[in-house]
Write a structure and sequence with these properties.
Strand 2 (53-56) and strand 3 (59-62) form a beta hairpin. The protein has 188 residues and is an alpha+beta fold. The chain has helices spanning 3-9, 19-35, 64-70, 85-97, 99-128, 148-155, 157-161; strands at residues 39-49, 53-56, 59-62, 75-82, 164-165, 171-172, 176-183. It contains seven helices and seven strands. Helix 1 (3-9) packs across helix 5 (99-128), helix 2 packs across helix 5 and helix 4 runs antiparallel to helix 5 (99-128).
């Protein structure tokens, strides 16, 4: 995991020379890496892009920004990723005894889930031989967080990865991500 990213999530300069902060980040990174059990799942869908949303897998997602992001694509990846429940347990454990460590672990876990998502994207690109658009998740801009219910149903996320959705649409484990990624059509 990139220490610079963890420091960024901590809102600290990536060039810090503060030994105490660097030691805390090292400890947090090691702990999160030791308990993290990443799981990912994705499916590729044909999509229809309209002016104010998209249709994917028989579901309509209303979002002008998502439609703009996917304009020109005829297919999209829908994915879910998580670091697993042990990460949440570790952060909660640290919060009860060492708030600074818990904050550093939160930052390390945020960096770790981003790396998992980036790696998944790279694997998809390589296996399909395509270019992908930027990830776009429920809760971004005008894509309502409530749309998570449709994402969970389309991917069967709870059954396949153990990620659950609360009544307020929070994902558990908390270090989990869902997203749409447009597949750029190539006309070679």
């Amino acid at each position: 995991m990139k220490k610079e990213e963890v420091l960024r999530y901590l809102r600290t300069s990536s060039k810090t020379q503060d030994g105490q902060i660097l030691s805390l980040v090292d400890t947090a990174c090691k702990k999160i890496e030791s308990v993290s059990v990443p799981k990912t799942l994705y499916r590729i869908f044909d999509i229809e892009v309209g002016e104010d949303g998209i249709t994917l897998g028989g579901e309509t997602f209303k979002s002008v920004r998502l439609a703009e992001n996917l304009k020109g694509c005829s297919r999209a990846v829908l994915f879910g990723a998580t670091l697993g429940t042990a990460v949440d347990r570790e952060i909660n454990r640290a919060a009860s005894t060492d708030v600074a460590l818990a904050m550093a672990e939160q930052a390390a876990a945020a960096a770790e889930i981003e790396e998992v998502c980036d790696s998944l994207e790279e694997n998809i690109k390589a296996s399909l031989g395509v270019n992908l658009r930027q990830r776009y998740s429920p809760g971004y801009f005008d894509l309502k967080i409530e749309e998570q219910k449709k994402v969970f149903a389309l991917l069967e996320l709870t059954k396949r990865t153990g990620i659950t959705l609360t009544e307020t649409f929070e994902m558990l484990p908390t270090k989990s991500v869902t997203a749409f990624i447009g597949i750029e059509d190539s006309y070679d």
